[in-house]
Batch of 3 targets.
Target 1
Amino acid sequence: MALGKGYEGQNCSLARALELVGERWTLLVVRDAFYGVRRYGAFLSHLDIPRAVLADRLNTLVDAGILQRHRYQESPPRDEYLLTERGTELWSVIYPLMRWGERHFATGEPLRTFRHATCGTELDPAGRCPACGQADVPPGDVESRPGPGIPAQPRQDPVSVALRQRPHRLLQPLL
């Protein structure tokens, strides 16, 4: 029996959420938006995603209210993409999923660490600050730092280079 293409017949909030964010590239686009990637070309080079797929994912995320499109240049027209409040809520899903992936599938140390910007303490796997006791540290208060797992031959796209160079507060422009 062939699998259906959607979850329309299911009265399930998880199924409806998966309709939006369950596609392979979507959470990677959202993750990069948390890192501060805002422009089409930066998403494209960092993710190695086909252009048509990226355009479709960005449009879907804008239509769903996860990202907002902001025109930064009129001629030729160029837009950047910023997380909305609805989009920033996904941090509580993406961060633990990244940590889970590191525990179960990583081949070495993490490429980056995440710290509470206020006190500098590394977040626990659930996104809490063990030093301050703050639960669910919001992404704007999280700093990404280069981790010990940078490979000997690291990627050279502008986003990867910027993420390796210095600590960076999430949601702030990276490039």
Note: Residues 55 and 93 are 23 Å apart (CA to CA).
Target 2
Amino acid sequence: MSYKILLIVSFLSVFMGCKEDPPIPELKFYEGKGTLAIGQTGLYYSKNDSEPIKIKLIAVISDSRCPEGAYCIWEGGVSAEFLVNGINYKILAASMGNQSVNYKNKKIFISGANPYPRVNAKIDPRKYTVEFTVEVI
């Protein structure tokens, strides 16, 4: 009898200890810029559109920006993967010019990313936030 109780208590303690991360709330932004965390969705509202554009940041693919405390010949850039209304895109933001995505009558591009790299410091990929700018074209 006691081994059954021990088994039940062990089973419950394992599954009660497992918690999912809370969902990341959607961000609403209007006419301009919005900053998203990895896995977060932003809803871009424009006064000229009846439906928002849904932008979801999937991952920062690479970060070749010149770290603070280093001397670099090239400034580098950040590339990110994201979804725009369910369509997958990858774009690069670099000192030589930003790539952009044209979606309907909007141009979407990366206008910033944090944290900024530092010499001898590794960035946890889950800690990135990326600022997107949406412009009417």
Note: The chain has one helix and nine strands.
Target 3
Amino acid sequence: MWRLILLLVFLAAGCELAKGPAMPGIDEGNIALPVEGFDSSGKKISLEQLRGKVVLLSFWASWCKPCIALIPHEAALAKKLEGQPFTILGVNGDRNPDAQSRAEEKLRMTWPSISDASGFLSSKWEIDSIPVMYVVDQKGIIRFSSKKVIDRIQSFEELSRRVEKEVETLLKEGKKPG
């Protein structure tokens, strides 16, 4: 009889799986997948190198009008947060590296963009349309993905405000002791 009671207690309680450490992936709460490559000047850069900073990871291309429309907002955020542990890392989908260089120069982009001419990174991150923006925290965890909110965003200004809020929240969290 006591075995039956014990069995019923266990069944009623259920078995909750323990939450372990974050796993690599592309969703909020995942450790960001590796992003590594060369910028338009040939310098090797990776997301891993930027640990300790909040990173706005922005998938874009020079031929993408919505991407180009977002760049002034990204530039304003970079300027506003200058001197803080924040950076932008672009992932550029242009097949022609010269197009990337020309766009960066014309748009006065002050942050690096990795060339993804092969489409490898976009494929790995399951990017099927651009622009896509991720906010990655100081520990490399994805904390925001524009993919989750893009259907509810009415303008680039709204998306930019949302990204800025996420970044500023993470910067404040990083300043807390402990």
Note: Helices lie at 2-13, 65-80, 97-106, 120-124, 156-175.
